[in-house]
Design brief:
Layout (H helix, E strand, L loop, with lengths): L1 E4 L6 H7 L3 E4 H6 L7 H10 L2 E5 L2 H9 L4 E3 L2 H12 L3
Pfam families: DUF5615
Protein name: Mut7-C RNAse domain protein
InterPro entries: DUF5615 (IPR041049)
Length: 90
């Protein structure tokens, strides 16, 4: 299973690699010369390389869903719930 981490979560790829996943970062792939500057190019790259896309971009998540592509959409409401739970510890 290959994973493509969208640019908003650059660094998550490194953590996933430490756990044994085959993970790549859009941002790092760009520095290697890959042309991944639009949502379409990112989604298409994931599709062509049989990758699961991890993104916070709701439009990318919706495009993946509409086209039957594997995607994990990091929902801002869920992230907000985690933040507010952690704030209770202070």
């Amino acid at each position: 299973m290959k994973i493509l981490v969208d640019e908003m979560d650059d660094g998550m790829d490194e953590r996933l690699i430490q756990l044994g996943y085959d993970a790549y970062s859009v941002k790092k792939l760009r520095t290697e010369g890959k042309k991944l500057h639009t949502d379409y190019s990112v989604i298409n790259y994931a599709k062509e390389n049989d990758m699961i896309l991890i993104t916070r971009d709701t439009e990318s998540g919706q495009a993946c869903e509409e086209n039957g592509l594997p995607c994990i959409l990091l929902d801002n409401n869920e992230i907000f719930k985690i933040v507010t739970e952690k704030l209770k510890n202070f």
